[in-house]
Specification:
The chain is an alpha+beta fold. The chain has a single domain, classed as YlxR-like (Hypothetical Cytosolic Protein, Chain: A). It is built from three helices and five strands. It has helices spanning 54-63, 65-70, 76-86; strands at residues 9-11, 18-20, 24-29, 35-38, 46-51. The strands form two sheets. A three-stranded antiparallel beta sheet has the order 4-3-5. The protein has a two-stranded antiparallel ribbon with strand order 1-2. Helix 1 (54-63) packs antiparallel against helix 3 (76-86). Pfam families: YlxR. This is YlxR family protein. Residues 10-83 form the YlxR domain. InterPro entries: YlxR, YlxR-like_sf, YlxR_dom.
């Protein structure tokens, strides 16, 4: 009997809902203070998870929630890139 590996759950910083890690997008601030989208989910740094939903990205942008979470300035490029990913 193979036991199914438990899937890691993470909380979306906007909706506060738990999702499987692979269903979320991770945004990271590293030690150098650079903010970027983490494709692998394994990069070092402070991470914040967002659900793959355009309205969630909009909300995050309006409320500056990523800025608060990552303690860094988030450029519009990051939000644009996030929007592109969720609308694919």
């Amino acid at each position: 009997m193979a036991t199914k590996k438990k899937e890691p759950l993470r909380k979306c910083v906007v909706t506060q809902e738990m999702f499987p890690k692979k269903d979320l997008i991770r945004v990271v601030r590293n030690k150098e203070g650079e903010v970027f989208i983490d494709e692998t989910g394994k990069k070092n740094g402070r991470g914040a998870y967002l659900s793959k939903d355009p309205s969630t990205i909009e909300k995050a942008k309006k409320s500056n929630i990523l800025q608060k979470h990552l303690n860094a300035t988030i450029s519009d490029d990051i939000y644009d890139e996030l929007m592109q990913r969720v609308s694919e």
